[in-house]
Amino acid sequence: MANHDTQEAQLLIGRAIRALREQRGLTLEQLAPLGGITYQYLSGLENGRENFTIGVLQRLSAALRFPLKSLVALAYEDTEQQQVPKVNGAHFRRNVPLPGALTFAALEDALNRTQAIFFLINRNMRMEIGRPLQNLIQGNNFSGLVSNVFSDAMDQCSTFKHNHDQRYPDLICQVSQAGLEVKATIQVGKGGESHNGHSGWHTVVCFERSDAGIQFVHVMFAMLKGHQEPDADWKYVGSRENTNTGSRRTETYHTTGVGTTKLRDGSAYLDPSRVNYSRWREQRHAATAPGYSIYFTSTPR
């Protein structure tokens, strides 16, 4: 068993070295002397026929400009046959109303397309510099990127297309003309945040980050009332100053307690292993939650 494990390690690490060498555009003859070995030995190492020392791996990883720890992790990522992460179809709550002509099949395609894009980006980032994309981008900027990529995926996968005026809303349904504003966040269950607080359909897509990319865990949809309407679902929170940088944010609106509850009612996708909503508070004008809500119960409370 031990000999089999050693042979497997040789094969996996050899494959990872070959992949990095080819990614760098190096030949065997160019890389081998940088590792202090012959090109024949390097060829055998890449094909799993030759054993290696830590010293050889350290020199090769330095020559490839790729940390040794990341090289080993990349090798064993392959042995686990890691695939592009996909959302779990069982976690869709298919009785939740969706905006316009959006279908659950199109939503699932858009979520999976977004995850695939970040998986491929991070795979290349780790091969190039040994770090995933989110390690180089501030959290709020990364969330904004997820929002943009998801909006583009919706444009590709559904009847909702980009609003080319670059104004509110982000997407417009070509069938019903319904608008949809998109927000992405790592704060599961968080309410909406907007720079305008207008009426219309809003979605908040919540995700987790990993070295492999992102994984969606919660997606909410709701028709919200604009801040100028009676019983508005938005409240103005002003233009805040960043105490660290001194810069000022643009005008911002947050959902009220009722608005946040509407979004949570419309939990179209919810991974129960990652989302614990038992302590979320609800606030609503109606006496009871709608039948599709995560709060709905047939027993009067």
Based on the structure, what is the oligomeric state of the protein chains? single chain
CATH architecture of the largest domain: 3-Layer(aba) Sandwich
Instruction: Report the β-strand fraction as a percent range.
Output: 15-25%
Count of individual helical segments: 8
The profile of the biggest β sheet is:
6 strands, mixed
SSE arrangement, N to C = HHHHHHHEEEEEEEEHE
The CATH class of the largest domain: Alpha Beta
Structural class: alpha+beta
Question: What is the alpha-carbon Rg in Å?
Answer: 24 Å
Helical fraction equals 25-40%
Walk across the major sheet and give the strand order.
1-2-3-5-6-9
Describe the structure.
Helix 1 crosses helix 5 (68-79) and helix 6 packs across helix 7 (139-157). The protein has 301 residues and is of the alpha+beta class. The mean pLDDT is 88. Strand 5 and strand 6 (213-224) form a beta hairpin. The protein is built from 8 helices and 9 strands. The N and C termini lie far apart (60 Å). The protein is 37% helix and 17% strand. The longest helix has 26 residues, at 104-129.
